[in-house]
UniProtKB/TrEMBL annotation:
<dbReference type="Pfam" id="PF09839">
    <property type="entry name" value="DUF2066"/>
</dbReference>
<feature type="signal peptide">
    <location>
        <begin position="1"/>
        <end position="18"/>
    </location>
</feature>
<feature type="region of interest" description="Disordered">
    <location>
        <begin position="355"/>
        <end position="386"/>
    </location>
</feature>
<keyword id="KW-0732">Signal</keyword>
<protein>
    <submittedName>
        <fullName>DUF2066 domain-containing protein</fullName>
    </submittedName>
</protein>
<dbReference type="InterPro" id="IPR018642">
    <property type="entry name" value="DUF2066"/>
</dbReference>
């Protein structure tokens, strides 16, 4: 019972996660005709959409390996069906995730996992000399289009709800003027991993001009003016213009969070973390490392006092792993070398386990009912090899923010 209680408390202490995108390997494309050639074109378009979503790169189709693979898209399809969308016959395709991953590896491309930063969009629309903040329930066409395009790129997009707390925290001039402090204050309640500020001017017909800023740090960093925004301008036909803005936003986030493939997958590191004070700290830290996109598997190798040494099997390069790990403000690098060598020490039953991160976690994996440590590997038992290379030593703090732990 004590072990179950410790696990339950540890799960409650887990950091806020980025949103989980569930449709990365699915695409629905228009099917204008019923002939075979039209269907082959639709399958190619669907594969392009999935590769863009999974790689985080809008220009992935320019890769020579990917361009060649698009000519034989059928081999990547795992399931398909026919459907209708807005009265248009469509082809709904699901692609095999392992084959997509292999293709991106062969192309030396990048991979962006299902765990993705949620983006809060502050949108002000200037129409007929009237400027208004667009809230989630406003049924605004521009806002719906931004959300649709975000879904196309696999980026979770949310609009502020516009209740009393929102309208008293921020005003139209705050957003239109790009004033960081009120934007950060009003965004705090939503805990996004990125904030997109959009100023939209409606023009003649179906034309729009967009001026936007993307803050890709957490809200605490934004409030301290520690985030330099990426900026852009797009204008033209509304659907195309919004698509261009969202593509730019997704490419920026993909460059930050997607990991390069084709690195030394056999590489192992010993990662040492100090100041682990409780089982809650341990489980939270282990889950954090496991969820990193660059990590294939994690095993707690040694514990001594408040120090834990993990064996980390990498899917990508050491630099990418170090970058991902350092994005969580609860971890700070220790520049001084360790004063002593870590030695094996007996631990409470069920505390240490090896975790395989090479396969995506199921949505139910975080529930207490699915956690069973009765058969897990104990510290120091049957661990074959110790990694020859030690990464940076980190210190753990529970007072830091976890908003960027992706």
């Amino acid at each position: 019972m004590l072990r179950i209680a410790l696990l339950f408390l540890a799960l409650l202490a887990l950091p806020l996660k980025a949103a989980t995108v569930t449709n990365l390997y699915q695409a629905q494309v228009a099917l204008p005709d019923t002939d075979r050639q039209s269907e082959q074109v639709a399958r190619k378009q669907a594969l392009e959409q999935v590769l863009i979503k999974v790689s985080g790169q809008s220009n992935i189709v320019e890769n020579e390996v990917v361009a060649k693979a698009l000519g034989s898209s059928n081999q990547y399809v795992s399931q398909f069906s026919y459907a209708n969308r807005d009265g248009q016959r469509t082809l709904l395709l699901t692609f095999d995730r392992s084959r997509i991953r292999t293709l991106l590896t062969q192309a030396n491309s990048t991979f962006w996992s299902e765990q993705r930063p949620s983006v809060l969009v502050w949108l002000v629309e200037d129409a007929n000399r009237s400027r208004n903040i667009i809230w989630d329930q406003s049924n605004n066409d521009l806002a719906k289009l931004i959300q649709t395009e975000g879904d196309r790129r696999g980026v979770p997009v949310m609009m502020p709800i516009g209740d009393f707390e929102d309208v008293t925290a921020i005003s139209t001039p705050d957003i239109w003027g790009g004033f960081v402090q009120p934007i950060a204050t009003a965004s705090q309640r939503y805990q996004p991993q990125a904030v997109l500020v959009v100023r939209a001017r409606k023009q003649d017909g179906e034309q729009v001009a967009l001026n936007w800023q993307l803050y890709s740090g957490n809200v605490e960093q934004l409030a301290r003016n520690q985030v330099t925004p990426s900026e852009g301008r797009n204008s033209g036909e509304t659907v195309t213009t919004v698509g261009q803005m969202v593509d730019s936003m997704a490419d920026i986030l993909g460059a930050k969070y997607a990991v390069p493939l084709g690195g030394d997958a056999s590489g192992q590191l010993a990662v040492v973390v100090e100041n682990i004070q409780s089982s809650q700290d341990f489980f939270t830290l282990e889950r954090l490392i496991t969820n990193l996109t660059s990590v294939a598997a994690v095993n707690a190798y040694r514990i001594q006092g408040d120090r834990v040494e993990f064996t980390v099997q990498l899917l990508s390069t050491e630099d990418v792993f170090q970058r991902e790990l350092s994005q969580d403000s609860r971890l700070s690098a220790v520049t001084a070398p360790l004063g002593e060598t870590l030695e094996s020490a007996p631990q409470p039953e069920g505390l240490i386990r090896a975790t395989d991160a090479s396969q995506p976690a199921s949505p139910e994996a975080d529930s207490p009912a699915d956690v069973d440590v009765s058969g897990t590997e104990q510290l120091g038992s049957d661990i074959e090899t110790k990694p020859a290379k030690q990464a940076t030593v980190f210190s753990w703090s529970t007072t830091g923010s976890s908003a960027v732990a992706l």
